Write a sequence for this structure.
């Protein structure tokens, strides 16, 4: 055999066996850079990690010990596919704070609301189906829709959240193009990454538009109880029981380590979600569910959320004042809840292209391209203020300002931004949650 | 044998380094060594001191791991370590410096210019870029002067692409190495040993459908590797000769990987030098070891043992 006839190796004997979608998965440089962001020298303004240090860890530790000692035979056993009934009842009480009236039977407990996103997508999305989502949108949701081979059409937002007229226009245009929209995916409160909240005056309108177009709403609400200055707004689910699947989570109001979220859905949808969940994971973790039950039963959880709100408000203030001081040439929104500030870079800069320089300067953020399905967003970056202390936030923004200055000089010199455009972060990682 | 594998660090290649470190750890454990993996942080010096009669294996990619800094620290602590010495790592790590050394030998390397960003500012970016294209032609390979894993690297086919490629490059390093892009057969030659005792492992050929970029390197499947490379005896001898000459010329120690493009005239053009070659599941050095019919455990433990003995501790 001549040398040119030989076969080489792809270092993966299963390469030809993968589904077509696996061949689109990429090892992104951006993900590699985030490996550095976890080092203590780096001020990470990237990840959406809640401030777990603000929890009464001793108390939670004691509750965990008692849970295993007193209820270990249940906590460490398989559980119900739909989730623990007692927890589902408590979840209805949590949701009542956002004007949702639901029965425990309507609730499906999931492994974080991320699993609920996956279940809804499994139940509804065929390849080529369209999901309509805000521009920008949560990177973790985009990854799930992509994995189900759906397309995402973005709808513009303004300071009051999703723009109803734009939603109407996009739904009309997609339908006119002969494509099927399966649902609107929306984060109405303290949007990730946009930071904005859907105005009360728009909520009914959004529900009505979707109803008119025969489009389901997937309402993802991890941050609704984390407003700084006002009581929670009524959820879209409170305006339409049949037209909305609601996703909730304990990840931001308590702790993401338990991985407990939930979906509330119309009864027929709920049944399918339970079947899909059982097929995927059999049952959500009993230990996690009972830990959360115990926490809700025995702790002042609403008081803890109030403390979180104060801590996050202080960090938001630190970030905004640091941006005003160090990055006046950029623009941003001032969120009144949640974890994120959405920053528009000075003209000509590309957030993705700039990231290596930022990592060298020991500061990290998430480039805006991560939050679009189609590679848009390079002019923006998401900054998270939830995890670092106010001092670290100020230091991080100060470093970021020097990075922006250096990148600006390079871009001005060559008259063009770097190579960030059109190459989105491919798949979500916990760093980006 | 106690081995302290250093991996992680703060460079852009942290993730790759961690993966390399784990693979080295696994292989050394199979060989019966007691292996600890450690990041480069404030606990490093105590960990090195606790090593006793052991040896350090710096499995760090990028700055501080390959630029000689860490090796300098280990020398100061009088600890045996695997790989190139600090003073020579400093030369090999900076691509233009290594190329300048090579240019005084019989080794071929693509024609190049080294340009810091400050020079573009001082002289005028468009004029400098025009001069570069006039001198080297197209296509061009734009590389950060320091760094690996193809981070910040672009191949520029047209003049209009050069601006963006340079901005991309300068996000990684303040100095750009601009090379005439060479086409041909891309091979990596891994070297074991030092000086006159150095020997080349079988060349590994990289056949990439598209650029051999970060994704192609670490996401198995996009690249087809041929180990040994599909070269005739003369070609194989040419790339091996060039790699060994570079290894000796730059005083590289214990191990290295020399990346070469065998051009259409059959000349081995050296395009990169790796003082701490990657050891991940998709890396080229381990493939070369296996293509030589040897197992990673015995080769890696041999490297570590040799470093110990060199220090008089074996």
């Amino acid at each position: 055999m001549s040398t040119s006839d030989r076969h080489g190796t792809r270092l993966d004997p299963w390469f030809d066996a993968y589904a077509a979608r696996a061949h689109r998965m990429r090892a992104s440089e951006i993900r590699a850079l985030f490996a550095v962001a976890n080092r203590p020298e780096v001020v990470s303004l990237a990840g959406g990690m809640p401030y777990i240090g603000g929890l009464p860890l001793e108390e939670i530790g004691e509750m965990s010990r008692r849970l295993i000692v007193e209820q270990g035979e249940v906590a460490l056993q398989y559980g119900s596919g739909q989730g623990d009934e007692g927890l589902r009842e408590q979840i209805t009480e949590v949701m009542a704070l956002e004007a949702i009236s639901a029965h425990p039977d309507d609730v499906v407990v999931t492994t974080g609301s991320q699993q609920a996103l996956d279940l809804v997508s499994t139940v509804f999305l065929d390849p080529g189906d369209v999901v309509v989502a805000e521009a920008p949108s949560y990177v973790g949701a985009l990854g799930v829709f992509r994995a189900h081979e759906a397309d995402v059409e973005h709808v513009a937002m303004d300071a009051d959240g999703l723009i109803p007229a734009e939603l109407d226009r996009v739904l009309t245009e997609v339908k006119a193009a002969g494509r099927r929209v399966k649902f609107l995916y929306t984060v109405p409160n303290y949007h990730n990454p946009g930071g904005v909240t859907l105005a009360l005056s728009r909520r009914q309108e959004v529900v009505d538009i979707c109803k008119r177009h025969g489009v389901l709403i997937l309402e993802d609400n991890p941050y609704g109880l984390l407003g700084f200055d006002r009581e929670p707004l009524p959820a879209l689910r409170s305006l339409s029981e049949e037209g909305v699947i609601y996703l909730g989570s304990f990840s931001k109001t308590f702790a993401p380590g338990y991985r407990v979220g939930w979906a509330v859905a119309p009864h027929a949808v709920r049944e399918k979600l339970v079947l899909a969940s059982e097929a995927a994971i059999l049952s959500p973790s009993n230990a996690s569910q009972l830990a959360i039950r115990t926490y809700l039963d025995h702790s002042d959880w609403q008081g803890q959320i109030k403390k979180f709100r104060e801590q996050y408000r202080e960090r938001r203030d630190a970030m905004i004042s640091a941006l005003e001081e160090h990055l006046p040439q950029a623009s941003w929104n001032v969120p009144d809840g949640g974890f994120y500030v959405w920053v528009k870079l000075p003209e000509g800069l590309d957030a993705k292209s700039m990231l290596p320089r930022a990592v060298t300067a020991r500061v990290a953020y998430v480039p805006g391209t991560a939050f679009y399905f189609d590679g848009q967003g390079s002019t923006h970056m998401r900054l998270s203020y939830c995890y670092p202390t106010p001092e670290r936030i100020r230091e991080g923004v100060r470093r970021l300002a020097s990075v922006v200055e250096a990148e600006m000089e390079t871009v001005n010199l060559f008259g063009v931004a770097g190579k960030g455009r059109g190459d989105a972060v491919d798949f979500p990682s916990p760093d980006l949650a | 044998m106690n081995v302290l594998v250093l991996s992680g660090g703060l460079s852009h290649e942290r993730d790759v380094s961690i993966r390399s470190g784990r693979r080295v750890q696994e292989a050394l454990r199979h060989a019966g060594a007691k292996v600890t993996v450690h990041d480069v942080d404030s606990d490093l010096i105590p960990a090195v001191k606790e090593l006793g009669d052991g040896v350090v294996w710096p499995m760090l990619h990028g700055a501080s791991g390959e630029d000689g800094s860490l090796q300098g620290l280990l020398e100061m602590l009088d600890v045996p370590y695997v790989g190139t010495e600090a003073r020579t790592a400093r030369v090999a790590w900076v691509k233009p410096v290594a190329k300048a050394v090579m240019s005084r030998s019989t080794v071929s390397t693509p024609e190049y210019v080294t340009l810091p960003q400050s020079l573009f500012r001082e002289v005028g970016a468009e004029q400098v870029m025009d001069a570069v294209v006039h001198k080297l032609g197209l296509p061009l390979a734009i590389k950060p002067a320091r760094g690996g894993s193809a981070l910040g690297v672009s191949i520029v086919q047209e003049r209009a692409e050069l601006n963006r490629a340079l901005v991309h490059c300068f996000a990684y390093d303040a100095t750009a190495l601009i090379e005439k892009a060479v086409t041909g057969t891309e091979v990596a030659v891994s070297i074991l040993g030092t000086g006159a005792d150095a020997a080349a492992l079988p060349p590994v050929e990289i056949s990439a459908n598209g650029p051999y970029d970060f994704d192609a390197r670490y996401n198995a499947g996009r690249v087809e590797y041929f180990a040994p490379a599909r070269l005739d005896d003369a070609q194989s001898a040419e790339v091996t000769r060039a790699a060994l000459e570079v290894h000796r010329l730059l005083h590289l120690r214990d191990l290295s990987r020399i990346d070469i493009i065998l051009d259409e005239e059959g000349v081995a053009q050296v395009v990169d030098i790796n003082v701490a070659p990657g050891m991940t599941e998709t890396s080229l050095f381990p493939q070369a070891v296996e293509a030589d019919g040897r197992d990673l455990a015995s080769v890696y433990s041999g490297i570590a043992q040799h470093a110990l003995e060199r220090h008089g501790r074996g």
Summary: Chain B has a mean pLDDT of 94. Residues 112-180 of chain B form a domain with the Dna Ligase; domain 1 fold (CATH 3.30.1490.20). The longest strand of chain B covers residues 184-192.
